[in-house]
Amino acid sequence: MLGNSLYGKRKRPADAALKFLINAAAALTVTVLAGILLYILVNGLPYVSWTFLSTAYSETDESLKGILPMLINTMYIVGITLLISAPIGISTAIYLTQYAKQGRFVKAIRFTTEVLSGIPSILFGLFGYTVFCILFRLQTSILAGCLTMSITVLPTIIRTTEEALLSVPDAYKEGAMALGAGKLRVVMGMVLPCALPGVLTAVILAMGRIVGESAALLFTSGLSYNMPRGFFRQIFASGRTLTLHLYQTAREASSPDAMHIAFATAAVLLILVFLLNRIAELFSRALRKG
Fold first, then answer.
1. DSSP per residue over the chain, as a string?
2. In this structure, are residues 132 and 220 in contact, taking their beta carbons and an 8 Å threshold?
3. Could you tell me if 64 and 55 are in contact, meaning their C-beta atoms sit under 8 angstroms apart?
4. By CB count within 10 A, which of 94, 141, 152, 223 is most buried?
5. Phi, psi of 25, deg, nearest 5
């Protein structure tokens, strides 16, 4: 009788309507996303070639419309920003979850990181321009852009890593400590490896934010499209990324090939984001097996 009373009832119209709305919202989201991706790829891929990927760019020379400097600058900013922000963000999350006494101070830090994650990126750009470019006299440079982006993605890394560390069962830590392991050994040998997928998710999210950022870098890294000449010389020089190049070329309505270059750059940007995420996923799987 109990089984019949629980499972023999007919579905209520409200439940069916809610299920339909959920499925429709999911289908609409996937359709819009697929439409945007297809639109960009269809309009951009025909203009992507090896010459486009391997040559420099010039606003005056029609034979030089490549994106190689922008590709290199993008990799510079992604790599250097993650080298700065990832250790700081992960270490902060470890301190907040494993060492800090849970009280007002920790709550204040978490509230601050949540506020920072919601600040428009253009405000980070203004801050970076004022502090790094003018006060620290770095001018508009790759290094100034990396420092600005490190502050921009730090809240994402901290909060996502925190959630990953908090998801590790306390029984793991208690068992390790019961066997005589020290606090540092428990955290580095037990908690952090268990939370590694979540930590890598934080890095992937930060990577996507860096690659797709334009407003903050517009004020700090500049719009130069010169070919890099040495690692250390380049990080102190101005350089536009792929997103800035896309923004700048799309504004050149007078040029007949401007939109073709913009769509081709957008297609390369999508492929680059996919490849970086795929590499991070493969790295995560390798660490799990190891």
1. -HHHHHHSSPPPHHHHHHHHHHHHHHHHHHHHHHHHHHHHHHHHGGG--HHHHHS-B-SS-TT-B--HHHHHHHHHHHHHHHHHHHHHHHHHHHIIIIIS-SSHHHHHHHHHHHHHHTS-HHHHHHHHIIIIIIIS---S-HHHHHHHHHHHHHHHHHHHHHHHHHTS-HHHHHHHHHTT--HHHHIIIIIHHHTHHHHHHHHHHHHHHHHH--HHHHHHT----PPP-SHHHHHTS----HHHHHHHHHT-TTSTTHHHHHHHHHHHHHHHHHHHHHHHHHHHHHHHH-
2. yes
3. yes
4. 152
5. -65, -40
CA Rg value for the chain: 24
Domain boundaries, the chain: 14-47, 50-289
What tokens were used for 210?
């860096």
- Its CATH class, for the domain covering 50-289, is mainly alpha
One digit per residue, the tens of pLDDT, for the chain of length 290 reads 455 555 455 668 888 888 899 999 999 999 999 999 999 999 999 999 999 999 998 878 877 888 999 999 999 999 999 999 999 999 999 999 888 888 888 888 888 888 888 889 999 999 999 999 999 999 999 999 999 999 999 999 999 999 998 888 878 777 877 777 777 888 888 888 888 888 888 998 899 899 988 889 999 998 888 888 877 788 999 999 999 999 888 887 656 678 888 899 999 999 988 888 888 778 777 766 66
Instruction: Indicate the residue type of 158.
Output: I
